[in-house]
Amino acid sequence: MVRTLGRSDAAHDILEELPEWFGIDRFTHEYVDAAARFPNYVAVATEDPGVDGGAIPADDVLGVLLLDQRYPTSAEVHLLAVRRKHHRAGIGRSLMARVEEDLRAQGVRLLSVKTLGPSAYDPGFDQTRAFYRACGFHPVEEFPDLWADDPCLLMVKAL
Ligand SMILES: CC(C)(COP(=O)(O)OP(=O)(O)OC[C@H]1O[C@@H](n2cnc3c(N)ncnc32)[C@H](O)[C@@H]1OP(=O)(O)O)[C@@H](O)C(=O)NCCC(=O)NCCS
After folding, report:
1. Is 82 in the pocket of ligand 1 (CB under 6 A)?
2. Which residue range forms the structural domain that includes residue 97?
3. What are the angstrom distances between the C-alpha of 126 and each of 36, 54, 106, 133?
4. pTM across the whole model
5. The CATH number of the domain where 102 resides is what?
6. Pairing, β 74-82 against β 110-116
7. What does the pLDDT average to over 44-53?
8. pLDDT, greater one: 64 or 58
9. How far is the CA of 56 from the centre of ligand 1 (A)?
10. Residue 53: pLDDT above 60?
11. Total domain count, the chain
């Protein structure tokens, strides 16, 4: 079940579970701050549909996606993370599907994500890029200097 939240304190817990991807404290704090600013989509394991916009205990949240929309026709996945023991169970795909449905309904045409580029050796992010490709994203360009220490790959998907 994917719901939207007005606010979430779930992101911090999930990021702490995934140090290979979010090991730098500075970024974790940035993401937790972002959770207060951006629309939150959360995957919850519950039979109770609840209501969008309500509060959910952090323990019930299995995955979180933060959406950054700067322009009327495009949006960016700012953060996506699924609890480790639930990887590869379709949660990431479900979060993405719900976000895409909402964006299409608003007339948004392009969804992007920035992730670690392939020129940095990192088996975890090989899997991340495989996930985005499976969701229909295409690599556009790797930017060596956009981020301080790591190459940034821009991936996009037409909605
Ligand atoms: C990347 C992530 C969000 C994917 O979520 P998920 O719920 O595990 O992924 P799904 O089960 O929905 O996978 C959908 C498809 O993506 C692909 N995929 C997912 N994980 C993969 C992996 N480890 N290796 C290869 N392909 C993978 C598969 O094609 C999969 O479909 P299939 O299982 O039917 O073959 C999750 O693994 C995660 O939190 N990773 C760590 C954090 C991260 O990388 N966040 C993104 C940073 S930019």
Report:
1. yes
2. 2-158
3. 29, 35, 32, 11
4. 0.92
5. 3.40.630.30
6. parallel
7. 63
8. 64
9. 24
10. no
11. 1
